[in-house]
């Protein structure tokens, strides 16, 4: 598993480095997505997650939900357009799950994506994510997770 400045980035995921989001293909052509460990470290301890409701259509580049921490409130943007098929109610009820386990229990939504093959080709493979994340951390002046 790639580790960039103390931040785990599992190599079985796809990444939208610019927006600090990960994607995992799941059954039935759907994709699960959530915030990276980098995102949760930047945001700090999450205190709220308000996800889009099941059945809501999301446009590419738009929010699948709003994340709030003690120092930040902002959108969790999806590179993929699609229909929200599932919302992680456990994350809604206990947002700090994303800090503790961003890649498993801390997922946000499952989408039925549109044009997934084109979107997928724009994402960074986990095995190739180290360089792009190093550059993003430099650009953002971010020392790393746990720093």
Question: What would you say this structure looks like, in words?
Answer:
It is a single chain. The longest helix is centred in the C-terminal third of the chain and has 10 residues, at 130-139. The chain has helices spanning 37-43, 89-93, 97-100, 116-122, 130-139; strands at 3-4, 7-8, 14-16, 21-26, 30-35, 46-51, 57-58, 63-69, 73-77, 82-87, 109-113, 124-125. The protein is globular. It has one domain (3-114): OB fold (Dihydrolipoamide Acetyltransferase, E2P). By secondary structure, it is an alpha+beta fold. The chain contains 5 helices and 12 strands. A 7-stranded antiparallel beta sheet has the order 7-10-11-5-4-3-12. It has a 3-stranded antiparallel beta sheet with strand order 6-8-9. A two-stranded antiparallel sheet has the order 1-2.
Topology (elements, then pairings):
Elements: E1 3-4, E2 7-8, E3 14-16, E4 21-26, E5 30-35, H1 37-43, E6 46-51, E7 57-58, E8 63-69, E9 73-77, E10 82-87, H2 89-93, H3 97-100, E11 109-113, H4 116-122, E12 124-125, H5 130-139
- Order of strands, main sheet, comes to 7-10-11-5-4-3-12
Tally of helical runs: 5
Structural class: alpha+beta
Count of individual domains:
1
In whole angstroms, how far apart are the ends? 20 Å
Largest sheet: 7 strands, antiparallel
Order of helices and strands: EEEEEHEEEEEHHEHEH
Total count of strands? 12
For this structure, the CATH topology is OB fold (Dihydrolipoamide Acetyltransferase, E2P)
Which CATH C-level class is it? Mainly Beta
Shape: globular
Mean pLDDT: 96
> What percent of residues are in strands?
35-45%
Note poorly predicted spans: none
């Amino acid at each position: 598993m790639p580790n960039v400045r103390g931040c785990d980035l599992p190599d079985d995921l796809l990444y939208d480095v610019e927006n600090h989001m990960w994607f995992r293909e799941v059954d039935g052509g759907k994709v699960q997505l959530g915030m990276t460990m980098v995102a949760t470290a930047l945001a700090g301890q999450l205190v709220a997650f308000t996800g889009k409701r099941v059945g809501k259509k999301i446009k590419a580049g738009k929010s699948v939900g709003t994340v709030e921490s003690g120092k930040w409130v902002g959108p969790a943007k999806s590179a993929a357009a699609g229909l929200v098929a599932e919302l992680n109610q456990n994350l809604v009820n206990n947002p700090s799950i994303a800090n503790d386990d961003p890649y498993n229990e801390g997922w946000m939504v499952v989408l039925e994506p549109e044009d997934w093959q084109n979107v997928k080709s724009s994402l960074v493979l986990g095995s190739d994510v180290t360089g792009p994340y190093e550059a993003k951390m430099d650009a953002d002046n971010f020392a790393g997770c746990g720093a």
